[in-house]
Specification:
Radius of gyration: 17 Å
Largest sheet: none
Distance between the termini: 41 Å
Number of helices: 6
CATH topology: Arp2/3 complex 21 kDa subunit ARPC3
Order of helices and strands: HHHHHH
Number of strands: 0
Helix content: over 70%
């Protein structure tokens, strides 16, 4: 994909997520398109691309959110790193694998954000936040991530940089 198209899509995700998806949410739970974009970037392009994309989009989210500065930079950067590391282990992806990893990363993202909020303002019970926010948002992201994989990603011919057989070293006999 052309780099400019990639950058335009990335920059449009934050306004779409903060405006249109607020209406598509269930109660306070809405899908996290930035997390999904960072996941697919890190998984298919590597951990550095995931970290840089996640941190850049996290910075933009911090500017427009009005919340504590640095929270989204750290959370999205960590998600980019984790998705890049997970991408090295799986060469053949399926919708089920994608949905499982999006669920895992979404729960980890929710716990990272909760931990930061707990550090800043204590007294929030974890089980309530997990039951009413983290888990439903993770399930929502999982369904949308599976749909994105089914509708878009599996149709693209994406080659992982480390999956090239020519880059493997031949054993000495």
């Amino acid at each position: 994909m052309n780099r400019w198209v990639y950058v335009i899509i990335a920059l449009l995700l934050v306004p779409i997520q903060t405006t249109w998806l607020s209406a598509a949410g269930l109660h306070t739970v809405r899908p996290d398109l930035v997390l999904l974009f960072v996941y697919f970037t890190g998984f298919y392009a590597g951990e550095w691309a995931g970290i840089l994309t996640g941190s850049a989009l996290g910075l933009i989210m911090d500017f427009v959110s009005g919340g504590p500065m640095g929270l989204n930079i750290a959370a999205e950067g960590i998600m980019g790193l984790l998705s890049g590391l997970l991408g090295r282990f799986f060469l053949n992806t399926t919708a089920t694998l994608t949905m499982g990893m999006v669920l895992l990363l979404s729960v980890v993202d929710g716990i990272v954000v909760f931990s930061f909020h707990q550090w800043v303002m204590s007294g929030i019970p974890f089980i309530e936040v997990f039951r009413w926010t983290i888990l439903p948002e993770a399930l929502y992201n999982t369904l949308i991530g599976g749909f994105i994989f089914w509708a878009v990603v599996r149709r693209l011919d994406i080659k992982k940089p480390w999956a090239d057989p020519a880059s493997y070293s031949t054993p000495i006999v």
